[in-house]
Fold this protein.
Amino acid sequence: MCTLERRGRVLILTLTGSGEHRLGPDMISSLRSALATARSDPTAGALVVTNEGRFFCNGFDLAWTGKSKAKLMTLVSLAKPVIADLVSLPMPTIAAVTGHVAAAGVMLALAHDYVYMRGDRGVFYCSELDVGLPFPPYFMVLMRSKLTKPGTLRDLALGAKKINAIEGKERGLVDKVFESASDVLPEAVKMAEQLTARNWNGGVYASIRMSMYPDLCRSVGLPQESDEEVEKHFVSRL
């Protein structure tokens, strides 16, 4: 499923094995357990999420659903807290992508603060239109929140376009592109170490991140503070 290791104050969550890392109940449970461990670590300064094999994440485990709508909706519901966990995590997050990213996997990658990707292989691909499935509402809110360059959301959602890392950087899907898979994780860890060295307050970091994406927070069930609560927290930290 996945592992969590430390390198100094940087945590590295790896989707392990040579499979497609599809999001079924077991994978989602493993992810949430690792993210809970990261959240509870008071000395962690940043999180890097990466993958083994040819896929970062190839979406929901449709084989597990057996074409059952009820089981598919179960996966949609189970994956929502994963996005909430990442959006509310009290530290910077970097997706170090060394394989293909499809469907729900696109959402997993976009939920990070930064996306690093290999340039020689791998694409972002929202396959929903091709397989005849609508987007869950929180998927669309996440994409609207993160994809701000004109045409990118249209081409992914309404064109089912496969976008490689180089084009992804131009379109705002990817922050940095590297020549090969072997370069991605070391560079992501280096960036994570630089961010960790800033010694930011994790609670403040998460609060600012969540305030950037209020619609996304509402869509994944994160509690919304009133203006009075925000002001109170602001004053308490001065």
The chain has a mean pLDDT of 95.
